[in-house]
Amino acid sequence: MDALTDHARKNLEHWDRQSDDYEARHSEQLTQNPMAWGCWSVPESQLQVLGDVGGKDVLELGCGAARWAIALAKRGARVVGLDISARQLEHARRNMRDACVDFPLVHASAEAVPLADASFDIIFCDHGAMTYCDPYCTVPEAGRLLRRGGLLAFSAATPILNLCWNESEDHVDDHLHANYFDQRRSEDASSVNFSLPYGEWIALFRRNGFTIEDLIELRPPHDAQTSYTDYAPIAWARAWPAEQIWRVKKLRDS
To answer: Domain with 80 in it: what CATH number?
Structure first.
């Protein structure tokens, strides 16, 4: 990999260190429905974020163990999986062998993707690299990598969740704890996450040649179950959106 930013190196170390534990905690949920969005696994069949992927070139940014990518490959997509963590990619290779599916895996940061311009019809991630990378790097990279008319779609935490995160208690509550306009990144001892206010996302998309197709605020079903129990209580996420999906299309070069 090329020289990494400080936050990228920190996140690489975090995911190499946490990958096995993450698989142990979440593999059952992720395997049960690999094409599903967010912590409560809202099905792609219900949301139709990506649409028909057959015959399309698809890049997953932060593919982890590649369950999404494998499912899309089985539906006829020409998939590439990218992840900054070598250990995550080891899990991906194992799952690909088990599924009898083969496609390229790229060990790189989503902030500097070593692939050619205009190579893809769809770029997506479910949380993944769009959470752990600087959007002022990833959105221009997506614009470079997508063909005209191509789709960028990703899920992430909402500004509302970030505003209501009580850092001293390390959980979300029903009070505002942060300055909305100052939201950019959050950092703890192990990793760095990124987020933007809504208006800043919109301006960033527009500057890079994207038009907004949809903003989906995920609301889990009242009986939804999740292994991501430290994210937000389901009652909270049914009252306020904890996760969002941006769906934007490239109309022009930036």
So the answer is: 3.40.50.150
- Specify if 26 maps to a domain: yes
CA proximity to 27, closest of 41, 13, 42, 48: 41
Place of tokens 């991906």: 92
Residue 114, in any domain of the structure: yes
Question: With bands split at pLDDT 50, 70 and 90, how would you rate the model's confidence at 2?
Answer: low
* pLDDT recorded at residue 243: 98
Here the tokens at position 19 are: 């990958």
Q: Mention every residue, 6+ apart, whose C-beta is less than 8 A from residue 172.
A: 161, 164, 165, 166, 232, 233, 236, 242
For 22, residues 6+ apart whose C-beta sits below 8 A from its C-beta are: 15, 64
pTM over 0.90: yes
Q: How many domains does the chain have?
A: 1
Do residues 220 and 128 touch, judged by C-beta distance below 8 A? Answer: no
Domain range enclosing 146 = 6-157+197-232+244-250
